[in-house]
């Protein structure tokens, strides 16, 4: 908390610096007038989150923090998919060293995004299942385009959404709705998501979403950044601390879980069903 306070006080005195962290999988651009960064996920066809994409995103978030960013819009280069969630191939017959690196990077990406000192908006311009929904939930505000689906559908895949996935959802829609959403693995339509507060606004186009995102950032023009950041930390800090404390334990559980032959069989069948869908 104290460190964050010092960092946020520094925001008041340091001028904004421009920088570039764009990579092949995450394009980063900075609006010179507003200082707002836009990170666009660009891993066709569905922005599934593999180790390389997560590493780029994680580094981008670290750089934004270091450079005292004014804010971040997280979006997708696809017109139909925000992110299909974790890359299922990272969990199918995994090389365990890579798998551990993958999961550690996912944890760190969440810590950086959920706990960022700068304001964050997800422009959800396509489907956002599972890990895709997690990325959106980790932002402070979600603006979604119509006619897509969003949710933590892990139970439908025979998996359990980790506690910090659940905490991110609880932070947005409360305990009751989170329990219902998680046990059913429901994917919500945009309108259903709006109704339960899983997203904050529904729009018809990406341009409209970007305009609304600008309005969200404008709300902070007259709010001292340190007060904003400390308030966010007071609300989200416990969720982050819980993961920081249990990181290793979670890794041990996951290692055993992912090597379960029944789970591997289920993942294989799920991958097959995704392929079959394409052949129809
Ligand atoms: C102590 C802790 C205890 C327990 C924790 C245990 C484990 C960890 C738990 C869970 C965390 C898991 C989180 C996840 O994110 S799992 C991933 C879930 N994602 C999904 O279910 C989405 C699957 N995809 C879709 O539904 C559709 O693709 C989508 C609606 C996103 C887009 O549809 P569209 O019609 O546009 O594309 P497709 O034809 O379906 O796909 C194109 C292409 O992409 C491949 N694909 C899709 N999704 C994924 C993915 N997530 N990973 C890898 N590959 C994916 C798909 O197979 C097609 O490939 P190809 O046939 O080769 O072209």
TrEMBL record:
A GO cellular component term found in this entry reads:
mitochondrial matrix
Q: In which pathway does it act?
A: Lipid metabolism; fatty acid beta-oxidation
The Swiss-Prot or TrEMBL record annotates one GO molecular function as:
delta(3)-delta(2)-enoyl-CoA isomerase activity
Keywords from UniProt, A to Z, are: Acetylation, Fatty acid metabolism, Isomerase, Lipid metabolism, Mitochondrion, Transit peptide
Q: Does the keyword Isomerase apply?
A: yes
Annotated compartments? Mitochondrion matrix
Keyword Lipid metabolism appears in the UniProt entry: yes
Q: What InterPro entries does this protein map onto?
A: ClpP/crotonase-like_dom_sf, Enoyl-CoA_hydra/iso
Checking Gene3D superfamilies in the record gives:
2-enoyl-CoA Hydratase, Chain A, domain 1, 6.10.250.170
**GO biological process annotation, one example:** fatty acid beta-oxidation
Catalytic reaction annotation? (3Z)-decenoyl-CoA = (2E)-decenoyl-CoA; (2E)-tetradecenoyl-CoA = (3Z)-tetradecenoyl-CoA; (3Z)-dodecenoyl-CoA = (2E)-dodecenoyl-CoA; (3Z)-octenoyl-CoA = (2E)-octenoyl-CoA
| A UniProt-annotated Pfam family | ECH_1
In UniProt terms, what function does this protein have? Key enzyme of fatty acid beta-oxidation. Able to isomerize both 3-cis (3Z) and 3-trans (3E) double bonds into the 2-trans (2E) form in a range of enoyl-CoA species, with a preference for (3Z)-enoyl-CoAs over (3E)-enoyl-CoAs. The catalytic efficiency of this enzyme is not affected by the fatty acyl chain length.
Q: Can you state the subunit structure given in the record?
A: Homotrimer.
Identification of the protein by name: Enoyl-CoA delta isomerase 1, mitochondrial
According to its UniProt entry, this protein's organism is: Zophobas morio
């Amino acid at each position: 908390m104290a460190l964050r306070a010092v960092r946020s006080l520094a925001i008041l005195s340091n001028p904004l610096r421009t920088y570039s962290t764009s990579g092949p999988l995450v394009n980063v651009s900075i609006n010179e007038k507003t200082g707002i960064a836009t990170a666009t996920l660009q891993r066709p066809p569905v922005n599934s989150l593999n180790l390389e994409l997560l590493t780029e995103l994680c580094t981008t978030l670290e750089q934004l923090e270091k450079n005292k960013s004014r804010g971040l819009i997280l979006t997708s280069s696809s017109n139909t998919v925000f992110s299909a969630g974790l890359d299922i191939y990272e969990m199918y017959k995994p090389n365990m060293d890579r798998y551990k690196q993958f999961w550690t990077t996912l944890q760190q990406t969440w810590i950086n995004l959920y706990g960022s000192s700068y304001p964050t908006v997800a422009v959800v311009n396509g489907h956002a299942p599972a890990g895709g929904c997690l990325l959106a939930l980790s932002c402070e505000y979600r603006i979604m385009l119509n006619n897509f689906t969003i949710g933590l559908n892990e139970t439908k895949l025979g998996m359990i959404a980790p506690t910090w996935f659940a905490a991110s959802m609880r932070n947005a829609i409360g305990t009751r709705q989170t329990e219902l959403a998680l046990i059913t693995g429901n994917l919500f339509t945009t309108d259903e998501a709006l109704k339960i507060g899983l997203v904050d606004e529904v729009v018809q186009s990406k341009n409209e979403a970007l305009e609304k995102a600008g309005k969200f950032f404008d709300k902070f023009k007259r709010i001292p950044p340190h007060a904003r950041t400390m308030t966010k930390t007071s609300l989200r800090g416990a969720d982050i601390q819980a993961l920081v404390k249990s990181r290793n334990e979670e890794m041990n559980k996951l290692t055993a879980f992912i090597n379960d032959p029944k789970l591997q069989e289920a993942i294989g069948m799920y991958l097959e069903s995704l392929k079959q869908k394409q052949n129809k």
